[in-house]
Specification:
The complex is a heterodimer of chains A (468) and B (524). Chain A has 468 residues and is mainly α. Chain A folds into 3 domains: 160 residues, no CATH class; 110 residues, no CATH class; 122 residues, no CATH class. Chain A is built from 14 helices and 9 strands. A 3-stranded antiparallel β-sheet of chain A has the order 1-2-7. A two-stranded antiparallel ribbon of chain A has the order 3-4. Chain B folds into 4 domains: 117 residues; 117 residues, Sirohaem synthase, central domain (Double Stranded RNA Binding Domain); 93 residues, no CATH class; 119 residues, no CATH class. In chain B, the strands form 4 sheets. In chain B, strands 4, 5, 6, 7, 8, 9, 10, 11 and 18 form a 9-stranded antiparallel β-sheet that branches. Chain B has a 5-stranded antiparallel β-sheet with strand order 1-20-19-3-2. Chain B has a 4-stranded antiparallel β-sheet with strand order 12-13-16-17. Classes of the chains: A mainly alpha (468), B alpha+beta (524). At the A-B interface, helix 12, helix 13 and helix 14 of A face helix 1, helix 4, strand 7, strand 10 and strand 18 of B.
Chain lengths: 468, 524
């Protein structure tokens, strides 16, 4: 574990990273400025977003630096960068709102824009009000991925289709955003609780490896083609849209050999889990745990390699398709979910490394276990009424638009399932006195269901909720 | 599974009392009861509730993954699953989970479970609510958290100080006087203890509404051409329902954005009853027409494949005479001159020619053709000279626009016809629904909002103050205790606030306590 040693040898000299990040931000802004001067259009949305991206990246680097070294001065610089990024982001949201004439909730792009904004606000609130400084280490990378994804999605302002022209849209979506944000917060707090509750680091390894494994397994299972290809949606660069063969059926292209890379990454992320399992069987044999940790490190390298290959091959180019003759273009924009899954998997593995190397510091930084358990519960107490109102507002709106308040559409059904899971949490906690780990696991399960409702349903189970 | 020990234990002992009552009640009851009672207990237990909810979750999730019957076309279903699998799925109801009997049965069981659990627990809560615990006995005082003892000079000064402090915090303290002891009790928001029943009741109300809709509600569609009146709604299952009133569509339309995407669909509707218009409304998406519990929603709009008006220019083929502009609807007949008439015989929105016949390929306006019949008396005279008996017979010319080879005799027609404009008729697609239970649903939703607000944000806080004499030393102290049913850390802050206020009051009191006592008694 070479990087760990290097990190320990280097005394935490606060200024180096700040100066480096500051210079990098200044350089990037300067380059961007030159570009803008050339084009003559300063205040358009993509420039604003680009500025936000630069500041968020700086903040992310600083927060990560803080997470790894525990140097307090990083946080101050990081929160300044976050403030600046938020300013750019706010301007972009305002611009969008003004341009479109409706609040930015109408497409995946607009949802992401609002989501990133909410995330930045939450980070600052958590830091200033609750003194949970380390939260930026987690939220900022997510915000960065969000902004990068936005660059790929189509950005042209779409007028609202008739069904979306309702005040209830804004009520419903705002409530959904708030509820999901509260759920995400409860998830993060539950994870922190597990750290403070002296859960073994290996157990976290099982969690993180299992989730990365699930990500690669789903990519390989759904997209691997004979022999060694990876199938991705085709993309029409002129319309900036996916290509459809018939109604609802997308055209897929196969990128040769990329499938093998994904299989390799799958094996790499499976390795730590296997070593961990062996270690557990042999009564926590330490040498296997060391091996497992090394395997994590190796898996990150392989994952980064897989991501780079994916970016290079899938960025553009023309590939054959199984469904039609000829070559068809594809683009990263056609597979935003695979891209974010790959980035997310790397991120999860990195979080594990952070825990592995800096557990002691994290333990002193975070509030006590009892406190975290209590805040988790409070967040869910906030999330649950919001979920309820979100579903109610959605039902009322559906009654106005589709003629029925409940039609068992997949999104509706999964929202109800989410609601039931959190209702279960509250009942177990209040009447059965579930605290601590059991409650934390329940909160984690709840968030997993939320994620499925938000992403999984949209892309796997299409229904009436086609807009977002 | 490490349950965080001591602190939670105290938490539980303190203000979770209400819930502990439930559990004890359950245990004691089980011993001496028969099967009926045991069944009741099982239904009322939280375990049953959780198991049922897990089942609901699994089935609902399955319902989102397996393609569902009414929504998906039968063809698509057959394409997605093999016949064998499809038969099994159909048999167990997985292709229509949300309307299958066992899913509805499960929901009924969940309702039964909620009712039973609430009925089982309510008496305890009600006792807790109606007969508040005002004087803490010794064992309660020992286990209570948070608590604090402050040394005092005598009982009375201590109680007065506490009374004042509670007044200052906005409570209405109450003197509790028993035979051999006394104290102070103050509380706020006792209703919060019952809030959870409000939530459960609201859920039942929502279920009730949906069940009412399931039995007495219906949904269907009604397509109206502009100007058409109808009272027949086609229901989901293919049957037709006759409304006691009719709906007429006066006009319908679509407004577009600049880029051509639809911005608005609208229809001007009128409700007709016994030949009179009783209600008029222009409906748009998101703004339905409601009449006698039946709602009409704008759901689609389009061309009905019928011609509203075909505009033509007719020029005599022999070159003599002026050109005429005429407008025709299908089956209209117009005279072009004294001997010649033109009839709009047929309109085909999407035509194809096979074996010298014109077919209708689809009802989409893709490849339209108009069939016109020009009838000429004079033409008959000129051409069929030798057939005298047919002299008065009219001669028909089939004119097709566009001219279709082998079918049309456009060139023979005495008039050359040219289409200048084609106005298509439109229909408006209405969703019609009758959901008498929806008021239960909305009532339940509102009630649930209120209930949840009470459950999570209205806290039942209680304070007890008891003067205690240490039997060994004879020293008096003031015992303060408090409890809240949630948000206990914030409550502890309030409790500490009370303690400091009492301590501050105590410093002022000794001199004045006598007079204070006199006035306070006089006051009562």
């Amino acid at each position: 574990m070479a990087p760990a040693k290097a990190e320990q040898q280097q005394p935490a000299s606060g200024m180096t990273l700040i100066v480096t990040v500051g210079l990098a931000i200044a350089f990037l802004l300067f380059m961007a400025f030159l570009n803008v001067v050339k084009n003559g259009n300063l205040l358009n949305e993509s420039n604003l977003l680009f500025a936000a991206l630069i500041f968020y990246s700086g903040a992310g680097a600083l927060y990560l630096g803080f997470g790894v070294t525990g140097t307090e001065s990083y946080v101050k610089a990081a929160s300044i960068a976050t403030w600046l990024g938020l300013a750019g982001n706010t301007a972009a949201v305002t611009h969008r709102w003004y341009e479109a004439g409706h609040p930015p909730f109408a497409s995946v792009y607009e949802m992401l824009l609002s989501f990133v904004w909410t995330l930045a606000v939450l980070t600052l609130v958590a830091e200033k009000k609750y003194h949970v400084k380390v939260i930026g280490t987690v939220t900022m990378p997510v915000a960065i991925v969000g902004v990068v994804l936005m660059q790929l999605l189509r950005t042209d302002v779409h007028p609202l289709v008739p069904a979306l022209q309702s005040t209830w849209l804004h009520v419903h979506v705002t409530l959904a955003m708030l509820a999901y944000a509260a759920c995400a917060l409860s998830f993060a707090l539950a994870m922190m609780f597990l750290i403070q509750d002296n859960m073994k680091t290996e157990t976290f390894l099982t969690f993180t490896s299992a989730s990365t494994l699930a990500i690669y397994a789903s990519v390989v299972l759904t997209r691997f083609e004979k022999w060694g290809g990876l199938s991705l949606a085709a993309w029409n660069p002129e319309n900036k849209a996916e290509v459809f063969i018939s109604k609802g059926v997308r055209l897929f292209v196969t990128i040769p050999d990329l499938g093998w890379v994904m299989v390799l990454a799958l094996l790499a992320v499976a390795a730590p889990l296997v070593f961990c399992g062996v270690a557990r069987c042999k009564n926590n044999n330490d040498s296997f745990l060391v091996l497992a940790n090394r395997a994590v490190f190796l898996s990150i390298l392989i994952q980064v390699m897989a991501l780079v290959m994916f970016l290079l091959r899938a960025r553009d180019g023309r590939y054959p398709s199984l469904d039609a003759d000829g070559l068809f273009p594809t683009s990263l924009a056609a597979s935003p979910f695979i891209l974010s899954a790959l980035v997310g998997a790397i991120f999860i593995s990195l979080l594990y490394l952070l825990l592995l190397w800096r557990r002691k510091d994290l333990e002193t930084l975070l509030p006590s276990a009892v406190e975290l358990d209590r805040i988790t519960y409070k967040t869910i107490c906030l999330a649950f009424p919001l979920l309820t109102l979100m579903i109610a507002a959605g039902a009322y709106w559906a009654n106005q638009t589709w003629g029925s308040y409940w039609s068992w559409d997949p999104k509706e059904t999964w929202a109800a399932i989410t609601w039931l899971v959190y209702a279960g949490y509250l009942h177990m906690r209040i009447t059965r006195g579930w605290r601590g780990r059991r409650a934390a696991y329940f909160a984690i399960l709840g968030f997993a269901v939320v994620m499925f409702t938000f992403f999984g349903v949209t892309y796997l189970l299409p229904g009436l909720h086609a807009y977002a | 599974m490490a349950l965080l020990p001591s602190i939670y234990f105290v938490d539980l002992c303190g203000a979770m009392l209400a819930f502990e009552h439930y559990e004890q009640g359950e245990d004691m009851a089980v011993e001496s009861l028969g099967i009926a009672r045991k069944t009741w207990q099982t239904i009322a237990s939280i375990k049953t509730g959780v198991v049922l909810l897990i089942l609901v979750v699994i089935l609902a999730a399955a319902g989102t993954i397996v393609l569902q019957r009414p929504v998906t076309d039968p063809d698509e279903m057959q394409a997605a699953y093999s016949p064998h699998v499809l038969r099994i799925l159909d048999a167990v109801g997985l292709t229509d989970v949300f309307h299958f009997w066992w899913f509805l049965g499960l929901l009924l069981l969940v309702s039964a479970c909620i009712i039973a659990a609430s009925v089982e627990r309510f008496p305890n809560s009600w006792r807790y609510f109606s007969r508040p615990y005002k004087y803490p006995d010794e064992s309660f005082r020992r286990a209570s958290h948070p608590q604090k003892s402050i040394p005092i000079a005598d009982e009375e000064s201590g109680l007065v100080a506490a009374q004042r402090a509670l007044h200052a915090m906005g409570f209405k303290p109450e003197r509790i006087v028993r035979e051999d002891h006394f104290g102070i009790f103050a509380e706020r928001h006792r209703i919060s203890e019952l809030a959870v029943y409000i939530v459960h009741a609201s859920l039942l109300l929502i279920f009730f509404g949906t069940i009412v809709d399931g039995f007495w509600g219906w949904r269907g569609t009604l397509n109206l051409n502009e100007g058409q009146t109808s009272n027949l709604v086609e229901l989901r299952d293919g049957s037709t329902r006759k409304l006691p009133f009719a709906i007429r569509c006066d006009s319908a339309g679509q407004d577009n954005y600049k880029d051509g995407t639809p911005k608005k669909w609208w229809s001007k509707l009128a409700v007709v009853q016994e030949g009179r218009d009783v209600k008029n409304k222009e409906i748009v998406v998101n703004d339905p027409l409601l009449y006698k519990g039946v709602r009409f929603y704008q759901s689609s709009y389009g061309q009905n494949g019928k011609v509203d008006k075909l505009s033509l220019v007719a020029v005599p083929s022999n070159g003599s005479g002026a050109k005429q502009e005429i407008g025709l609807a299908v089956n209209d007949t117009v005279a072009l001159d004294s001997d010649t008439t033109i009839r709009f015989a047929e309109f085909i929105p999407d035509y194809a020619v096979r074996d010298g016949q014109v077919y209708r390929k689809s009802n989409e306006l893709e490849n339209p053709a108009a069939h016109l019949v020009v009838t000429s008396k004079s033409a008959g005279k000129n051409e069929d000279k030798d057939k005298d008996k047919d002299k008065d017979k009219d001669k028909d010319y089939d004119v097709w626009l566009p001219a279709i080879n082998g079918v049309a005799d456009n060139s023979k027609s005495p008039y050359l016809l040219q289409a200048t404009d084609l106005k298509m008729g439109h229909f408006t697609g209405l969703q019609v629904s009758h959901e008498p239970g929806q008021w239960g649903v909305w009532g339940g939703v509102v009630l649930m909002g209120i209930g949840l607000a009470f459950v999570f944000y209205v806290i039942h806080m209680r304070f007890w103050v008891v003067p205690v004499c240490d039997p060994k030393t004879g020293q008096y102290s003031l015992w303060l205790g408090g409890s809240a049913n949630r948000n206990r850390d914030a409550f502890e802050q309030r409790f500490n606030e009370l303690v400091t206020t009492v301590e501050a009051e105590l410093k002022d009191i000794p001199k004045t306590s006598r007079q204070e006592q006199v006035t306070s008694i006089a006051g009562h």
